[in-house]
Amino acid sequence: MPEPDFAALAERMLRDYDARDPGTVFGEGLRLSVDDAWKLQAAVADLREQRGEQLVGYKIGAINPANQRSTGLSHPVWARLWSTEQHVNGAKLSKRDFANIAIEGEFAVTLGRDINPDSVTIDTFSKSIDRIFPVIELHNLMMRGEPPRGHELIANNAIHAGVVRGVGSPAPATSLSTDLVVLFDGEVVDSWPSLSWPRDILRAVVWMVGKLAADGRRIRKGETLLTGAFGPALPLGEKTHVEVVSSAFGYVEATIT
């Protein structure tokens, strides 16, 4: 097979993303190897940086084996976070700015120092964290190609479309347990009664640090890392108010109309 024209594909991917119509090339039959999907994600990222967007961190997706199998992958995925898609607690957003908006409630951390990929473990990573906070991750829940769609997920920056972040709290120095609850219009739509810090919350971090290092990247002081959702992305539908609440680490909310 000839190598894809990454420059042309990236221009179209970004143009479609800006038009709130992402991934149309996959609906036309484009299929990529996993390696080429990562290359396409990187090519789109280069275009975003060229027009002035800043990389502010990374996200981990598909941390559950069931989610991986459903997309034909045997590992999680990582994607980039952009300065233009960061929203503060209480944000008021429009559904028109997304394609079939869906929500994941999860945790994010900010780094207090650079991460050395040669010696990272869950414990050493947890000691490098400045703050931990709940987030509302926003997605364009739009997958157009034929299954399995792992290549499409990767190329589409893991369908990430932004994040609403809470204030959070300093990272705990010792292990603890917390719950996490996602609510739409005051109704619980997903919940996890007992998640351990740091084991459950940071369980995919070591994998991502290694993958970023293999790509010539390191996680730096001040960057944000979304540590991975414990359940599927949930379409918001006609609902308008989203809350994500953790008894240990606070809450975040947004209105999306």
Question: Mind explaining what this structure looks like?
Answer:
It is built from seven helices and 14 strands. The strands form two sheets. Strands 1, 2, 3, 5, 6, 7, 8, 11 and 12 form a nine-stranded mixed beta sheet that branches. A five-stranded mixed beta sheet has the order 4-14-13-9-10, with no helix packed on it. The mean pLDDT is 96. With 257 residues, the chain is of the alpha+beta class. The radius of gyration is 18 Å and the shape is globular. It has helices spanning 6-18, 24-27, 34-50, 65-70, 122-126, 150-155, 205-214; strands at residues 55-61, 77-82, 86-88, 91-93, 101-111, 129-140, 160-165, 169-170, 176-184, 187-197, 224-226, 234-235, 241-246, 250-256. Helix 1 packs across helix 3. The chain starts with 5 loop residues before the first helix and ends with a strand.
Helices and strands in order, then pairings?
Blueprint (H helix, E strand, L loop, with lengths): L5 H13 L5 H4 L6 H17 L4 E7 L3 H6 L6 E6 L3 E3 L2 E3 L7 E11 L10 H5 L2 E12 L9 H6 L4 E6 L3 E2 L5 E9 L2 E11 L7 H10 L9 E3 L7 E2 L5 E6 L3 E7 L1
Parallel strand pairs: 1-11, 3-7, 4-14
Antiparallel strand pairs: 1-2, 5-6, 5-11, 5-12, 6-7, 6-8, 9-10, 9-13, 13-14
Helix pairs in contact: 1-3
